[in-house]
Amino acid sequence: MGGERLILCYNGKSFPSVSVTGGRCAQMCEHCRGRHLSGMTATETLDSLLAEARRTKASGGSGLLISGGADTGGRVPVADHADAIGRIVSEGLEVNVHAGFIDREEAERLVRSGVTRFSVDVHQDREIIRDFMHLDKEPEDYGRLIDTIREAGGIPVPHITLGFGEKDLFLSLRLLESKGMKDIIVLALVPTPGTVTEGSTMNEDAVAGAIMMMSATGFSVTLGCMRDRTLRGLEIKCIQAGARRIANPSAGTVRWAEENGFSVETDPRCCCMGI
Questions:
Q1: Are the CB atoms for 26 and 70 separated by under 8 Å?
Q2: Contact 86, 109 (CB under 8 A)
Q3: pLDDT at 248 exceeding the cut of 50
Q4: Phi, psi at 125, each rounded to 5°
Q5: pLDDT per residue over 204-217, tens digit each?
Q6: Domain total for the chain?
Q7: Which uninterrupted H or E stretch holds 263?
């Protein structure tokens, strides 16, 4: 492992996450129920979105992750703010969007505004899509979304969340292979009050084992933001399993990586931006 490159991404204040719907979400996935929106800055108006961008720029930040709650069709109304995004990009900030199921016109509007990265959640198990995501979608719709973003000139960045079962995982990886996509952001379900995950957490070895499998089959894995931070050994196990990018690692993980000969680099941006 000596000398291998390890990229540590620190978004935090330098690349804050904002919600264009505040705390509102109509989709209400079983594992979230809108709870995770509370960790984002609410920017429901044009003025509030631009003000957050100005604060980020003034503090030396590099960009924004623009997301929010989805409607019942899985669409986040990010494209409605395309003009504001254009102004944000023109002032030197980068933008990653989590826009959900958008159409070609919306994707093109966002690309014209300066968006390059589109975070895309990927699921392929029909039962998960219907019963957990509450979406009237087919597995094929996820592939169509990837194609739509690419055809519009954007870069889709696939996110796979561990904890939804082997079927969803393996079929999702098969879809990404069919699209020639080798860069993956890996997330893991976290215990969230008021949801089906309350009081439960994923096993560290299960997460690391999945990452080892992905790495061994040619995927480049980033350990993303959503994971249980009480699992103290998770980050190191994931590096040992093959992850070479980590979002917001602990100080202990950084020390371990340096002590074990990794060539550590830092990136003050959302982990999607280097893909």
A1: yes
A2: no
A3: yes
A4: -90, 120
A5: 999 999 999 999 99
A6: 1
A7: strand 263-267
